[in-house]
Amino acid sequence: MNAPSTETIQRRIPVAGPVVIILAVLCSAAALAFYKREQPIPVDAIPHIDRTGDYVSADTCKKCHPGAHASWHNTYHRTMTQIVSPETVAGDFDGRDYTVDGITYNFYRDGDLFMVDAKKKNSVGKMRSLPRFPRRVVMSTGSHHYQAYWVPNEWAAGANGQAIQINRQPIEIPLYYNITEKRWIPKQKSVIEPPGTPGNSAHWNSHCINCHSTGGVPRFDEATMLAESSVADFGISCEACHGPGREHVEYHQNALHRYGQHLTGGPDPTIVNPERCSTEVSVMICGRCHSSSQPIDLEEARKHGIQYRAGDDDLAEHLTFADFAALPEIDDYYGKDKINPDGVQTPTSGHTFTKVFWKDGTCRVGGDEYNAHIKSPCYLNGDLTCLSCHSMHASDPNDQLAAGMNTNEACLQCHESFRENLEAHTHHAADSSGSQCYNCHMPHTTYALSTAMRSHRIDSPDVQRSADTGRPDACNLCHLDQSLAWTSEYLHQWYDQPVATLTAEQATLPASLLWLLKGNAIQRAIAAWHFGWEPALSASGSDWEPAFLLEMLTDPYAQVRFIAHRALRGFEGYRPEQFPYDFWSSEEDLRNYQRTGFTNWNTDHPPGSELSDRIIELTGEESLTAFLKAMSGERDNTPIEIPE
Amino acid sequence: MQQQSPNPPVSPGPPCRAHLHLCFGWWQLLVFLTLGITLEAMHGFKVGWYLDADHETRRLMLTLAHTHGTLLGLINLAFSWTVTRLVAWPAPQQKLASWSLLAASVLMPLGFFFGGLFPYPGDPDLGILLLPAGAFLLLVSVLLTAIASTKNG
To answer: Furthest-apart CA pair in chain A: how many Å?
Structure first.
């Protein structure tokens, strides 16, 4: 066969050229078929991002402070508010139905979009989507324990009855995703609120914006109830703690200024470093949000936001803090009868701030540490700041504790004298949980996010105070099987505390059982949490607790049931695969679960068994059934609400 | 009595200068390719001193030291070849171009290197001040070489 001549090849080339070009175009066209364009969140659905003012955003800070930016990027502060995307969503959008207050919600994916449908039965009993549902989920709150979701708030009736579009004011879906439990839970059941509390939706633009964004300006119009809100950053970013950065950035554009700062060292007057602030100012920076407070001028705050800036010493000119001693003098902005667009109306009566405190004036709401911190002697008589133990840039994101600050080193920084002879002070083995300073001086007596958290009012156990005010004391939260009288005797012997005056019950029965069975909702929640706390189980024995936790499975408060079950399922025989239970069930189902649980208990521990005798000992020589009946009959049913 | 050298020193002519840049170029390549391999090794062993987010300035500066040093080594080799080609290049201009290039070849990569060893947050150390002088000398050298190349054409 002859090879093609040069002439033949030259003839073919004009044909081959266009073919190659066409093939190349086809390749690009084929690639286009696989090209997925991101569908951005509609700009009108969420508050807009405005970085033209004093706030410049974390992106700007990153250019010169990449390390600080990276460590902040790991924190849950950053992800407090996020624009929804596959990278930010923790919830299962798996197409299942969840019914809350007669409305059935369904979370599902549509490609990369996260959608929620809300349906209700119409007059003829057919399920129909609510107006303009399904809607795209556009924004989320939280990413650590719970995640809440927001959808566009599209239309409302105007002043003259006409329909007006509501832009930039997303509304909350009343189901939260519990990240640890990997399940959806109705908002009302995720918090401590009296049973039957009607649902409410928080208003992000006028309320959440103050602490869940940086540089947020609500621009809320009281007359029209509309808000043209803007933020510099969604989430809590650099400028929340370091103050607005515009001046700093502009000044340091000049390399001479930068090198002047590098070479001279010392504070940079153009930016705030909380570590260099005075004790009071440093604590205010965190207290701006980690406090139970309300704006001094609510209307002004809804328009322009809270004008306090990190580094200023005038926080008290912007916020009124919940102060137990001054409650009668504080106006209640969020009271039950107030017209309240913020969505934080409280279902219980009395001043909103009364819900924040134990009766001794100690804050009992997790996340509001400032109110407790400023009552601590370590702050009042010392220099304790949040940064004494916490670090925003060199810590585990969980509690943001600086290295070693989850040990006694936290306290020994100042109380060095206890280092050498710790046991002489604690009367517990040096390597035991009883010798860990914060177990006695910062017990878990605050509640938030379905868990008991450490009180940040640093003080010492006091039995009389506990007996009088109901605030559980540290000793009996660990020694679950002991009475207040037992504790009082030791505190008298060891620390010369006066012997407490107690009721007969307080003198004879384990204090933990009184809080768990007869206490109010927050006492029950906190006691139930400690029934699953490892140091308490080590100190008290870890076999008898289920008998009492089972009683809590029908508690009227969903959160108490939830916490009690979480403790119970840690015990052999009650693990999820052995004892199915769901705290979000009908009353009848709850009773059935409980009946099964007690049947199992009685079968495993018949009268005369070692554990049965132990129960009799704990209940004061009474049978378990009779004891539980008597205690529950005297349960403190005062409506309790914890405003997280 | 001092003995006179049989061969008195002469100005380095093209072969001598070409040899100088040839040697300099190859040695410079050796030094800065070694630096490049060292940087790669720090990637391999995940050395925090080089890779941590807080050390972005150091990473940038050392990378620039490596790339500039290597590139200037190649330019020296090119200069060596150019000198042998441009027979009519007046000696004073050639000498100025040569020494400017050699100085730039030292100052620029070392400026980046010292600027990156112990940088400030977001800024290189003061060693970076070597860089502008080096950059100026490089421009002078390239300009003179370009003019000579044009005239020799």
So the answer is: 118
